[in-house]
């Protein structure tokens, strides 16, 4: 609204232009994708072929510096899952190609070569990885129990993004504040606390929270190639047993089976029969949970604010309701919109809860299958491909000494000698301490 | 036994192959869906089509986007100053001089009720003194924003909009904006004034050619 | 040996670096946290001191030195703000470097301490099957999640306080939940049958809404409306609405808390177009009706909904936009399993009976009448129940089960808004610019007596105690002998009446537009027992249940009852 007309200056005064600084150019985003692809390729080579922890650490630090401290966090593959979910739910939102590639590239890599992304490229993983000091082993039951959380988090985050209620994962990203050197106090405490915890429980965010890790785990579970502890045959020396700070090395199954086969089969059958019940319970829980969580949506928030004011619970009108009234939008429309959000979340929660119920049921059934394992090998799903275990394997040491590739040699004598030396070294060190 | 083991191994390999093909199919269809939809022109008024002359001109992919504040929707609630993830908000006051009335008594500059029209601290509205007032010719003054001092509190925007031409307004300064995947100001903005726009149209400056018809 | 010494040198150095970096980081962290907390608690910009000082300058511009003080303080504040931010940024950077050094030293130490671990003790036990524990843990986790889903709603909105009904307080004993059998003791406009007579109970005689005496509770009603409350069990239902939204509210009868509100949106066939209504009719003039565990609400938009007592919609239907010059106002009434709706608008009238179960039309009768605003009433006659509709020009009686027209009498004219009063099979009907007439309806309508002065225009008459009481919108209340039509008395009050009188415990309760409820002895001699202010304007008819009165004021729903001892 022009209340005062622009003056006619007689002194020849020239109006200055409004100064704007262009946003980070689109070319840079392309560079990000190229660098991501490059890092994934290098990482995969380091993990599968080169097999040296040193190289992986170097890559990790480089990626932490670039994707973490230089790029300052956004967009990262972990957050990109929400952009994809929102695009699926909202026809008015298109995922930028960069974001889509950030979402796809690590997943494709995991599908063929395992979780290279987690090993050295993800800045969130890297910052936790460098603070690991004295990792403790977590009992299997605890890992299984906590392992449900990421799936749940993934579900909730995807559904909220799908309904357009916001990006939960980005909101509660514990480390992005550290990268930016600017965070709210609660997030700083959360991030700092996770890092502190991470000195003894290795990579707590990656293992017990990260929603993208769930997807990577699923992809990695059916990967084409994968990380192995040993370059060739396992000699069952057990040296790598404690090498993994993430408890991802699976030990050979005991010779004697602890439980009769028929009782296992019977229990598995029971769980399979229970599947529908679990799915139903999951669906009910999911629907209920999501209906409540709808409160974080700004549209639902607005209606809640309007209600509170109408009832006189809140004396002053909030900024949201004030802005709403100023906008002249009809309250019925706002309410209908909020109800729509609730309904969508309710329905989606039903579906996803059912899915989680099914997944846990299958996991329960799977735990009843006695899978025979003869060698020490990384868990396909949970191995983060960090490469720490390589150095623990005598066959690997031998390979490095010989500079040969993974060709199996008949030199078992050499292996024995090396094994003997390593055990003795361990023994003396233990004796000293 | 070995035979059995091998059989088990190959069975597992088979399962894995099936899983791999399944996941690959899922990802491919997802990517196809998200990009193909754009080509079909399904995205109505989203950022993808903002720059296009018509829907046929839509790109196959959405260009990179940035956050933009629509001054027409802004209610000057002051939350931009406090809700940004940065200590000093990336939202700042912009000034379109071509719209400015160059008033001697500027309602964006002076405290309401200021008795003396001088630049003394007690007369200034801006809490950080980020507006510079300079004499041009009688009775006109020009006002410029010191970017480094502006905290995006919108006090001047409110004053100028209420009583003046509204030539002061808030915008996201992309020199500072981290372009968070979820903008924490946008999330709490009561007026829903933020949206993602293609990087080529990052700024929505008042009085710039054909203004968007809000 | 020499190798050992180098290791120990390295270790010592690492320990020292670790210590120094640790102390450095810890100190820095404490300092930064303190600064952050301080900045949060007392942001330097716009401090109260500065504001107070600025205010002082404005008030006393001549006072020496004040300006200089403001300027100094302002400069200080701005410096603190920017310096604080810069310090934090620099501090964060330094902290990061410190942490990097710390981690580096820790890693050096770790490398020198541990190489390859010896496998732990022979662990057949450790290798023992971990699956059972894992299964238990998984199941436990599932339980936790389900529990969480159960608890979150409880944590978010703490449950409404449950007030047990206090019998001696006049609250009718009620089943805990809105089951099918929950009685609707005040089921529709003007109570049972729509005749303005409360069944029993002893409502208070004296109260004062301005001081709160004998006011049990007062709850804000979110949206306006001229509809009156209905009461089913221990719930009070009310409708309200404006151009943006129409809603149904449910209040707890005992404590007045709003139990739920139901937005009437998303009804199939309902158009976005709103009817033209006047301010004194509004969008929510028709009073709701309740029966069989359901409540029904109708709005000026022609939308009708059925809800259960928990606020879930059972059905919703749009009857089409009524073409009514002031806005549709006729209230609902239910009987057996039918809900009756009188829509007399400019397109001619119709009487609809909807099945309460699903909202389908059971029957529909066309009525050859002008637009009107009166509500149907239900009376008991020798030939069974009968639905009485006032209209212009006909008053008519229908069989509520079939919709068959039993009789019709042409005696009305003008803008008919008054509903009938009745005793047994005699109905009293009146309207301004027409006549007040008493009709015996059983054997064909038989005019008993007529009167043509002081006629009502908005509020409806009430019959009882051998009398007929007729209010007007200009404040006149007249009492007639019900049998003969002779006038017993007439009294002019200061304010007029829009709300209809109710006969309860031998008294006439009649609230005027200013919210003062007059209590008059129901009898052939005028005796004003009390005049009780509500504290706000009132135009709706109160509900009388037990010893309580529920009345809608301009902004609140108020419950009047003897205060608890």
Written account of the structure:
The complex is a heterotrimer of chains A (433), B (214) and C (565). With 433 residues, chain A is mainly α. Chain A contains 19 helices and two strands. Chain A has two domains: 201 residues, no CATH class; 111 residues, no CATH class. In chain A, 62% of the residues lie in helices and 1% in strands. Chain B has 214 residues and is an alpha+beta fold. Chain B is 28% helix and 15% strand. Chain B contains five helices and six strands. In chain B, the strands form three sheets. In chain B, strands 1-6 form a two-stranded antiparallel ribbon. The radius of gyration of chain B is 26 Å and the shape is elongated. The termini of chain B are far apart. By secondary structure, chain C is α+β, with helices and mostly antiparallel strands. Chain C has four helices and 32 strands. In chain C, strands 1-32-31-30 form a four-stranded antiparallel sheet, with no helix packed on it. Chain C has a four-stranded antiparallel sheet with strand order 2-3-4-5, with no helix packed on it. In chain C, helix 1 packs antiparallel against helix 3 and helix 2 runs antiparallel to helix 3. Chains A and B meet through helix 3, helix 4, helix 13 and helix 16 of A and helix 1, strand 4 and helix 5 of B.
List keywords for this structure.
B: alpha+beta, two-stranded antiparallel sheet, 28% helix, C: 565 residues, alpha+beta, 4-stranded antiparallel β-sheet, 4 helices, 32 strands, elongated
Question: Which term fits the overall shape of chain B?
Answer: elongated
The overall pLDDT of chain B, averaged over residues, is 82
Question: What gyration radius of chain B follows from the Cα positions, in whole Å?
Answer: 26 Å
What is the tally of beta strands of chain B? 6
What global shape of chain C is seen? Answer: elongated
Order of strands, widest sheet of chain B: 1-6
What's the SSE pattern of chain B? HHEHEEEHEHE
Radius of gyration of chain C: 37 Å
Total individual domains of chain B: 2
Largest interface: A-B, 77 and 82 residues
Low-confidence stretches of chain B: 41-57, 210-214
Content of β-strand of chain B:
15-25%
Secondary-structure map:
The complex is a heterotrimer of chains A (433), B (214) and C (565).
Chain A: H1 26-50, H2 53-70, H3 77-89, H4 97-113, H5 116-121, H6 123-129, H7 140-146, H8 148-162, H9 168-171, H10 176-180, H11 185-198, H12 204-208, H13 211-221, E1 249-250, H14 261-293, H15 298-310, H16 319-327, H17 331-367, E2 377-378, H18 394-402, H19 412-432
Antiparallel strand pairs in A: 1-2
Helix pairs in contact in A: 1-2, 1-4, 2-6, 3-4, 3-8, 4-13, 8-13, 8-17, 14-17, 15-17, 18-19
Chain B: H1 2-39, H2 47-50, E1 65-69, H3 80-83, E2 91-95, E3 131-137, E4 140-145, H4 155-163, E5 168-172, H5 184-188, E6 194-198
Chain C: H1 2-41, H2 48-59, H3 66-113, H4 131-156, E1 215-220, E2 230-232, E3 235-241, E4 246-252, E5 258-263, E6 289-291, E7 294-298, E8 303-308, E9 313-318, E10 333-335, E11 338-345, E12 348-355, E13 361-367, E14 377-381, E15 384-390, E16 394-398, E17 405-410, E18 421-423, E19 426-430, E20 436-440, E21 446-451, E22 462-464, E23 467-471, E24 476-481, E25 487-492, E26 502-504, E27 507-511, E28 516-521, E29 528-533, E30 543-545, E31 548-552, E32 556-560
Antiparallel strand pairs in C: 1-32, 2-3, 3-4, 4-5, 6-7, 7-8, 8-9, 10-11, 11-12, 12-13, 14-15, 15-16, 16-17, 18-19, 19-20, 20-21, 22-23, 23-24, 24-25, 26-27, 27-28, 28-29, 30-31, 31-32
Helix pairs in contact in C: 1-3, 2-3
